[in-house]
Amino acid sequence: MRLLLSFLLAASVSAAAHAQVAAGGTLTLEQALDIASRNNPAYQQAVLGRTRAQAQVRSAYGNFLPSADGSFSLGFREGRPQNFGGINIGATSDILSSSWNLSARSGLSWNTFNQIKRANAGLDAADADVAAARFNLRAQVTQQFLLALQTQARAAFQDTLVSQQRLQLELAQARAGVGTLTSLDVKRAEVGLGQQEVAALRARNTAEVAKLQLFQQLGVAMPAGLTLLADLPMSAPTFTAEDLMTQARAANPTLKAVQARERVAVAGLRSARGEYTPTLNFSANVSAFTQKVVDLPPTATPGQIAENRRYPFDFTRNPYSLSMGLSLPIFDGLGRESRLQEANAAREEAVYSVRRQELQLTADVTSAFVSLQAAFQAAELQARNATTAREALQLAEERYRVGASTFVDLTTARAEYERAETDRIDAVYEYHRAYAALENAVGRTLR
After folding, report:
1. Other beta carbons within 10 Å of 189
2. Parallel/antiparallel/unpaired status of strands 82-84 and 87-89
3. 354 with 233: CB under 8 angstroms?
4. 39, 101, 316, 427: which could form a disulfide with 379 (CB 3.0–4.6 Å)?
5. Could you tell me the sign of the dihedral formed by the alpha carbons of 404, 405, 407, 412, in that order?
6. Is residue 153 part of a domain?
7. What H or E segment, with its residue span, contains residue 380?
């Protein structure tokens, strides 16, 4: 899984930082998901969590390497003797000095290996978190995309109703011109057209707001005149609840993330117990110095003159030192005991979190499956209702055209058709939202 996620992250980095959608163009669900994966701020934060986990793994392996220090110093000592116990000690001339020092230290214990296991478990958990964040983002974008499609379809339907209402007004004016209708019927047709235009305006505004909210989740600005496209076939569910539960236990990213956090807690408990183990310490040190007497007397020996000439970079090395020791922690003010209890409580909490997520998964998958079945049946019923209402409206329009029915009868038939067609549109997208909710609960695509 880690290799796959690394490949996906590398692909995301190599892609353009911001996807561009041309004004007046179209946007599919697949394009929206691709844009969101590269620009959504919440998802990018989850990706940064994996970067921190990788740094912790490198740091854990780095504990096998010794820590090393190097120093170089320059010094000056005034030429004045110091008095110790009535005796003057020290040179009477100013002295310049320089020195360097190199030291290395290393410590190995059972906890050194535990830290590596803990860091690797943390990286696995970060991978699982990224996968869960990516799938949750997919679910959120899909739901908002479907909502935007639904409002777009409703707005388009309202525009067709405006066209029909305008034709009915023209027919009413024509019939009033030949005396088969009164001016009151014409006024009613004009009011009906105005109300329908207001309804269409509100529907278009709702659709525009839904698209703005979609692009907020995508993380980019919305271009003008954009149209959403999607190929969303409807079919009766063919899978069973048992099959879905089996797939969910194996594929649900949220459950995997919680299980990975449990493994991190177990590794943390081992690390806390490892604080009771001894530590093997190694150290090495080497240094060198040189000095110069500022006011060298005329009686100085050739050796003193040669020593002065060595300053500041011709050093005399001191004996190097190597040491090895074994340290055993005995008492640190109950700090280890406290950390062990905290680690044990964290592991127990992680176990309960996994159990809670498993119960939540069962409830989510079962309810989503039942909702999908009900949504499919409702969509079929609403489709039949819309077909009947459309036929009734056509019949009412024909009767009104030949003068066999009143304008009130036509208005009633149109209102029933509008309600039935709107319910059909809502039922269709309710089915697709239920399907997306089931995929989110299972943790993988089902079509």
Report:
1. 24
2. antiparallel
3. no
4. 427
5. negative
6. yes
7. helix 335-401
Examine the pLDDT at 162 and tell me if it is beyond 90. yes
**pLDDT tens for each residue of 64-73:** 999 999 999 9
Report angle CA 378, 379, 380 to the nearest 5 degrees: 90
Residue-wise DSSP of 411-443: HHHHHHHHHHHHHHHHHHHHHHHHHHHHHHHHT
Band of residue 85 on the pLDDT scale cut at 50, 70, 90: low
Q: Which residues contact 360 (CB under 8 A, 6 or more apart)?
A: none
Residue identified by tokens 């207001």 is 198
State the DSSP H helix or E strand holding residue 237, giving kind and residue range, or none if neither: none
- Cα 248 to Cα 263: distance, rounded to the nearest angstrom: 20
Task: Spell out where 177-305 has E strands.
Answer: 227-229, 279-293
Q: Could you tell me the residue range of the domain that residue 178 belongs to?
A: 2-67+109-278+334-442
Sequence-separated contacts (24+) of 326-335 with Cβ below 8 Å = 326/278, 326/279, 326/280, 326/281, 327/278, 327/279, 327/281, 328/278, 328/279, 329/275, 329/276, 329/278, 329/279
Residue 2 vs residue 443, higher pLDDT: 443
First-to-last C-alpha distance (Å) of the chain: 22
C-beta of residue 99 within 8 angstroms of C-beta of residue 286: no
Half-sphere exposure of 167 (CA within 13 A, CB side): 10
Give the pLDDT score at 55. 93
201 domain-assigned: yes
Residue bearing tokens 């183990």: 277
Using an 8 Å Cβ cutoff, are 282 and 326 in contact?
Answer: no
177, 199, 198, 196: which is closest to 186 by C-alpha? Answer: 177
* pTM for the model: 0.77
What confidence score (pLDDT) does residue 278 get?
93
CATH number of the domain residue 179 falls in: 1.20.1600.10
Flag whether 394 is in a domain: yes
